[in-house]
Amino acid sequence: MKKNIKFSIIVVSLNTKNDFLKTVNSILSQEYRNFEIIVVDGKSKDGTIKEIKKRKRFFKKIIIEQDKGIYDAMNKGVKNIKKDWVIFLNSGDIFYNSKTLKKTNLIIKKNTMSDLIVGRNIINYKFKYLSNFDKINKNTFGSVFSHQSVFFKSKLFLKKKFDIKFKIAADFEMFKYLIKKNKKYFYSNEVFSISKIAGLSDKNRFLALKEFFLIGKKYNSKNISILTIKFIINYMCLLIKTIIKFFLPNYLNLLMLKIKYRNNIL
């Protein structure tokens, strides 16, 4: 019988006390208990650190120090993982339900050759909907799934960490690197996580687009012309959407979002 999986869960926070508590409570509610929690806080000033210290008995490692951004914080957490598989949850991200780790354990045990397990993610906004979900390949231009629903084999981080020169898309860069190294992705229709809208990439879409282009050049340099065309098309579409969104009243912006995700609304 295959052994049960041991999970490392890295929680990153910065001035997000209420969201941090939601994330931690979600982890502690898991029926499957074979996990460790590593907390990385960037020196919060809103009371988050006080809450961390109140719950220190639940955490394997606590790192409280300034960092160079979210991916730098995630790298600090990676240096301390001791278990077989790792997942990254930002403050506010929660597991889908109390059985998430239990189900993931079974999925991993059935797919022993996989290096990453990719599941579905729900966005919790003014309505709930499933976020983008597709397979990644060497030609993929932008994010096609959410890192909050990705479990990594811990040993993947022995040779490479997140590239912190990418402020928005270092997770995408990591996924492209792992494709280049022929690591095996397993895609599951199980929902693993729930996150809220207005994350880092949502707030910085033009920078994210630029980073997607730079990452594309790094890993697919033979198709620069195609990448450039994709960048221009995506940039123009994003610019038009941004202008329209600025002038439209909130209820119409919400309606447009519902139309966009009409097939994924829960």
Strand and helix map with partners:
Blueprint: E1 7-13, H1 17-28, E2 35-41, H2 48-54, E3 61-64, H3 70-78, E4 85-90, E5 94-95, H4 100-110, E6 116-124, E7 128-130, E8 150-153, H5 170-180, E9 185-196, H6 200-203, H7 205-219, H8 224-247, H9 250-260
Parallel strand pairs: 1-2, 1-4, 2-3, 6-9
Antiparallel strand pairs: 4-8, 5-9, 6-7, 6-8
Helix pairs in contact: 5-7, 7-8
What does this structure look like?
With 266 residues, this protein is an alpha/beta fold. The chain has one domain (7-197): Spore Coat Polysaccharide Biosynthesis Protein SpsA, Chain A, CATH 3.90.550. Helix content is 39%, strand content 20%. It contains 9 helices and 9 strands. Strands 1, 2, 3, 4, 5, 6, 7, 8 and 9 form a 9-stranded mixed beta sheet that branches. α5 packs parallel to α7 and α7 runs antiparallel to α8 (224-247). The longest helix has 24 residues, at 224-247. The protein is globular and about 50 Å long. The model has no long low-confidence stretch (mean pLDDT 93).
Quick structural overview:
The protein has 266 residues and is α/β, with parallel strands linked by helices.
